[in-house]
Every structure is written in C-alpha cells, then in structure tokens.
C-alpha cells in the first residue's frame, strides 16, 4: 500500500473526529493520541484492513494540519474554528442533538445560531468529501454530528454510493418532534442510499418520521423518495475487533501489567470495574450511589472488595459534563471518606484515559464488570469485557437501556434508575455459582465472536454497494 496521500479515494469514512487527536502540551510539544469513544474503536480496524481515506476534525480548535498517511489509510483533516467548536460541536451536536437523541435525560438546548453553524460545518465536511471521492466511490458518513452531510453530498456528487450510520440511539417521534429543524434533519439524512441504526427500535422511530414528509412513503425498511430514489433503512448492531481484543488481553505484557495492577489495588479478593467517557448518559451517578450503599451496609466488605472506576474526560466545556464531574468527585469523596480502613479506599476512581494495554489489563482483573447507562446506542465496553475473558469466572451487570442488552442477553440485566434493583443484581452476580457464571460467559463470548466488527462492516458495505 502506498505511503503517500492519494488525491482521491474509492472508499471514504467521514466522521466528526479523526481517529487521532493532536494535543499540544504546555511546553508547546505536539503529539497525537487516540481519540475517545466507540466510533473510533469500531472504525479503526475497518480502515486498517480496507484502506481509503478518513475525513475528520483533528480535535482542537483552529488546528491546521496537512493530510497524512496513517496505519494503512489517509487522514484528511477538516479544521474547526473556536466558534465552530463552541456552536457546532459543543452546542448543536452535544447540547442539542446528544440529549434529544438520548431520551432527553438532560434538557436539549435550542439556539438558532448553533443550527446555522451546524449547517455550515456539515457543508464543509460535504465539500471535502466531494473533492476527495473518486467517480462512483463509496462514502460512509458517521454519526449525529454529520446528519445533514448525506443530502449535501448527494447534491454535489450524485454519482457516489452514500451510507450513513448513527452510533447513538434515534429517539421516538414524540421526543424528536420538539426539534425546530426536524424536517431538515430527516431530509438531510435521507440523502443517503443506506441508513444504518444500532437496533430495530431506531429504524421504526425513523420510518415513522420519514413517512410524515410530503410525497414520501416508507415501510418495511424502505423509503421511497419523491425523486424516485429508494433509501434502505436497517439495523446493524456495531461491534468490536473481538480477536484483536482477546489477543491483546492475553499477551504477556498485558498479563504482567494485570498482576501489577492487582497489587497496586491492595490485592483485594474481588474487583468491580466500570469504564466510561464521563457522560451523563452512562448512568455513573446511580452506579456510584448503588455501590456506595453496598459498602455502607457491608454487603460489600471494603477490606475485601474494590470498585475501580475510570472516567475518560469528555466534552469538558459543556455545562452538563462539568456538573457531572463535580457530582462524581463529591460522591466518590464522600463514600471513601466514610471508610474505616486507612490502608485502602473502597472506590479507586481515576479521571483519565489509559492506553489500550492498560484497559485490557483492567478487564483481566475485573471479577464483575458494571455497565449501567441510562441510554446507550450500543456500549462497546460491555463487548470488550466479554471478549477479554478467556476464563469463565466473571460476570457482567448490564443496563437494559444499552443496545448491547439485545445481544448480551445472559448478562445480569438492570434498570439503572432502580438503585435497589441494581444493588440486588450486583450481589446476585457476585454470589452466582461458578457453573451458571461460566454458562453465561460462554454464551456471551460466542455472540461477540460470531458478530464482530468485520461482520458489521461487511454487512453494511455489502448492502450499500449492492442496491
Ligand atoms: P462511547 O462511544 O459512548 O464513548 P462505548 O462504550 O461504545 O461508548 O465506547 C467507548 C470506547 O472508549 C471503548 O472502546 C472503550 O474501551 C474506550 N474507553 C472508554 N474509557 C476509556 C479510558 N478511560 N481509557 C481508554 N479507553 C477508554
Ligand atoms: O459514539 C458516540 C460518539 O459521540 C462518537 O460520535 C464520538 O466520536 C464519541 O462518542 C466521543 O465523543 P466526542 O467525539 O464528542 O469526544
């Protein structure tokens, strides 16, 4: 494969973020680090095996970066000014669409100037994709930040095959119709030939809305457009590179790191583990409360049990995220301050991102994985944990409101709003017989390995390229 950047590509991924973010430290040194979130985890291996170009933002305002070749594919940066970051990214994407699409668990904020910026930035992404795509190329647009790009790109380049995949849930019409620009958003995404959602409920929510447009008919996963085009709408549950994850988790380096980590945590008999972007959709407040109460009541013995929680910094300038950070700091501080042991705190909480090797080591030492989002498109953390567990002596507590719950049916399911129910499920999972635990873990592992990221990408792209 060529190491130089190609003028045009036959396969392009367009996402708000590049797979790597440029970071400038205080002394001015620049480096690249892996971008946060499930989108990058899922699409990186797809790009590494297919090649092509990834169009996206380098992760900092006013960043001008030349295209470069990385890991077998081209990186085409799209700059965002500070005002774009404020209005398009922090504003319309993450304070309007994100809460609206996550069942309004936080109140969506509607500002006309944010909408104008959203349209303008979507145009910019569409223009770059139009310039970089070969005649007849396949362009795969990702996620809610680029909802308008499919139609914009179709107007510029009707020769392209255009796919769109939404990584987050798509809400019911009863919530979506609050959106002042609802018609534009639905029409914008209908510029694609194929629209993929995480689970079937999102497909039916979307079809109910599409049918409300004039002269549009939609049923059984197909939308017939007034211009004669047919758009396919279907569920494609996303996944992970399961073999890659398992191999990483069982490498000598990771196994050694796992042993060291266990020592650092005071060699407890049981480790509970959670890892999320610090996002209110992840249900951290209730999770920490439930576990705190279990320590307080001594159902969990702080001399024997540690709860390790990692939170990746995310969208730190958006108000809801700042409030969440303070709340978790306070909650964890309060629980730890009530512990009688001076040697060790019941909750080991870190607000940081870690290398993939360290994360794999943490999955290796976790006896119980706790994944409790209030709403989540999929949740790849749950699948990563399952893929890493070659031994069958562990368990997964999983929110019924994560897309992953439709696939990992043998997990201990919880309603994350029900703190007592969550406490009961945690205890049940911890005290389950080894035989039942092993059966559940084997079944979940089979599901993840039979439906990995290659199955996901192949099924989406085969459908896109064949109709
Ligand atoms: P989301 O896309 O909403 O962030 P997912 O669970 O689908 O949620 O994906 C999160 C991805 O980010 C996973 O691949 C997970 O391993 C990774 N991740 C989350 N937190 C951290 C962290 N603190 N350090 C490193 N990777 C993390
Ligand atoms: O999967 C949801 C998602 O919003 C992705 O689109 C995004 O890349 C990831 O989470 C992380 O969010 P952000 O890009 O805002 O840091």
Automatic annotation (TrEMBL):
InterPro entries: Glyco_trans_20. GO terms for molecular function: alpha,alpha-trehalose-phosphate synthase (UDP-forming) activity. Gene3D superfamilies: Glycogen Phosphorylase B. Keywords: Glycosyltransferase, Transferase. Its EC number is 2.4.1.-. Pfam families: Glyco_transf_20. It comes from the Bacteria. The keyword Cytoplasm does not apply. One of its GO terms (biological process) is trehalose biosynthetic process. Belongs to the glycosyltransferase 20 family. This is Trehalose-phosphate synthase. It comes from Acidipropionibacterium jensenii. The lineage of its organism: Bacteria, Bacillati, Actinomycetota, Actinomycetes, Propionibacteriales.
């Amino acid at each position: 494969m060529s190491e130089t950047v190609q003028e045009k590509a036959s396969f392009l991924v367009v996402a708000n973020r590049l797979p790597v973010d440029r970071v400038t430290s205080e002394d001015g040194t620049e480096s690249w680090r892996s971008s946060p979130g499930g989108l990058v985890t899922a699409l990186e291996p797809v790009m590494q095996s297919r090649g092509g170009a990834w169009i996206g933002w380098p992760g900092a305002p006013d960043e001008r970066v030349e295209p470069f070749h990385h890991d077998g594919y081209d990186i085409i940066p799209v700059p965002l000014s500070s005002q774009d970051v404020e209005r398009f990214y922090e504003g319309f994407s993450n304070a309007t669409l994100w809460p609206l699409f996550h069942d309004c668990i936080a109140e969506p904020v509607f500002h006309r100037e944010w909408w104008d910026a959203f349209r303008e930035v979507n145009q910019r992404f569409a223009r770059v994709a139009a310039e970089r795509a070969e005649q007849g190329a396949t362009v795969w647009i990702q996620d809610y930040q680029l909802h308008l790009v499919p139609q914009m790109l179709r107007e510029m380049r009707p020769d392209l095959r255009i796919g769109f995949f939404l990584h987050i849930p798509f809400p019911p019409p009863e919530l979506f119709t609050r959106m002042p620009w609802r018609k534009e958003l639905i029409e914008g995404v209908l510029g694609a030939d194929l629209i993929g959602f995480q689970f079937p409920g999102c497909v039916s929510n979307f079809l109910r809305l599409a049918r409300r447009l004039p002269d549009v008919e939609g049923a059984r996963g197909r939308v017939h457009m007034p211009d004669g085009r047919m758009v396919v709408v279907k569920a494609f549950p996303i996944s992970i590179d399961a073999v890659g994850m398992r191999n990483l988790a069982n490498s000598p380096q990771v196994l050694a790191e796992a042993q060291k980590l266990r020592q650092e945590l005071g060699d407890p008999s049981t480790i509970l583990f959670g890892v999320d972007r610090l996002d209110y959709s992840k249900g951290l407040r209730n999770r920490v409360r439930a576990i705190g109460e279990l320590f307080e009541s001594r159902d969990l013995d702080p001399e024997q049990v540690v709860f390790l929680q990692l939170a990746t910094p995310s969208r730190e300038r958006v108000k809801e995220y700042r409030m969440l950070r303070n709340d978790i700091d306070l909650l964890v501080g309060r629980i730890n301050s009530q512990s009688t042991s001076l040697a060790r705190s019941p909750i080991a909480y870190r607000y940081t991102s870690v290398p993939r090797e360290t994360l794999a080591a943490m999955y290796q030492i976790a006896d119980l994985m706790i994944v409790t989002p209030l709403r989540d498109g999929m949740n790849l953390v749950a699948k990563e944990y399952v893929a890493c567990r070659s031994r069958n002596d562990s368990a997964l507590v999983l929110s019924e409101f994560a897309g992953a719950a439709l696939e990992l049916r043998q997990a201990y399911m919880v309603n994350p709003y029900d703190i007592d129910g969550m406490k009961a499920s945690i205890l049940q999972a911890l005290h389950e017989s080894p035989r039942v635990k092993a059966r559940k873990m084997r079944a979940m592992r089979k599901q993840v390995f039979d439906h990995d990221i290659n199955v996901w990408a192949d099924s989406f792209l085969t459908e896109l390229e064949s109709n």
